[in-house]
Amino acid sequence: MCVVCGCNGGSGAEPTDGREKTSGVVHAPVERDNGDLHYGTGSARLSVPGISETRAIHMEADVLGENKRLASRNRAHFAAHGVSAFNLVSSPGSGKTTLLCASIRALKVRKPELSVAVIEGDQQTSVDADRIRATGAPAIQVNTGRGCHLDAQMVGEAFARLDLHAAAHHGHGHRHGHGSDALLFIENVGNLVCPALWDLGEAAKIVVLSVTEGEDKPLKYPDMFAAATLMVINKIDLMPYVSFDVSRCIEYARQVNPGIEVLLVSATTGDGMEPWLDWLLSQRAGVHHHMDSEASGHGEAAQRHTVSTGVTP
Q1: Cα–Cα 20 to 30 A to 220, which of 63, 77, 246, 256?
Q2: Which residues pair with 206 in a beta bridge?
Q3: Whole domain around residue 200: which residue ranges?
Q4: How many structural domains compose the chain?
Q5: Which of 2, 46, 1, 5 minimizes the C-alpha distance to 26?
Q6: 108-145 pLDDT, tens per residue?
């Protein structure tokens, strides 16, 4: 996992210059009858050369613990500015940016008073952020270099530079839980593994799965689908040209996450866009209700508003 492989700044490997190592015994893989090797059966659920499982667990706890602190700060900051944030995760090429561009245009028509902004994550280039900006929405590109995910610090620093942040802070004052009037989309780096671990302060993770990827992805990358609130099956206009079993995909997703919601969408043709917008706006209403409850001192959990997906569980 990226927590110990070094992509988040600094190597996870232990000293090789003669200093004493504290890693202990490295976890051996489980060998199946057919010769397959499984390195994810130990307590750390991974294997890194030169690092014991105990050391890997400690490193993960240290790094993710600090990220959780920063994510909590982001969450409070979003709430203070009336922002509902959604973290879009997927493999490369799932159509996240196309979906976002279509969503921004549709929201301008359906709810023109709603502010929408994007934090765009990639290893390099600003191509996707430029596409977002072409819709008229503010966007900040975050290039991670060799990093394979966005983290809470990156998101917090990007949010501070957004026009959305400036408008909420200077134009209307801090909301402090008394109204949610903006949507923030965080488009994560294309990767179905590492982003599952990282809380960015979002209201929900949304996993986007293209029909061109195959229906078995929830079983191959269970952590991501277990962490997601919603699975958007995208590019359904390509269904006649690919082999993709929608029912089986949903079944697999619910094996790892029984509560996951599902929507079928084509960002290019517009099929399924209305239920998708309904979902976003209902979740935003849920965040609004939760913030108002906390502000009033009741401390009651927000009632989640859901929409029918047209899919039978």
Answers
A1: 63
A2: 88, 230
A3: 66-296
A4: 1
A5: 46
A6: 999 999 999 999 999 999 999 999 999 999 999 999 99
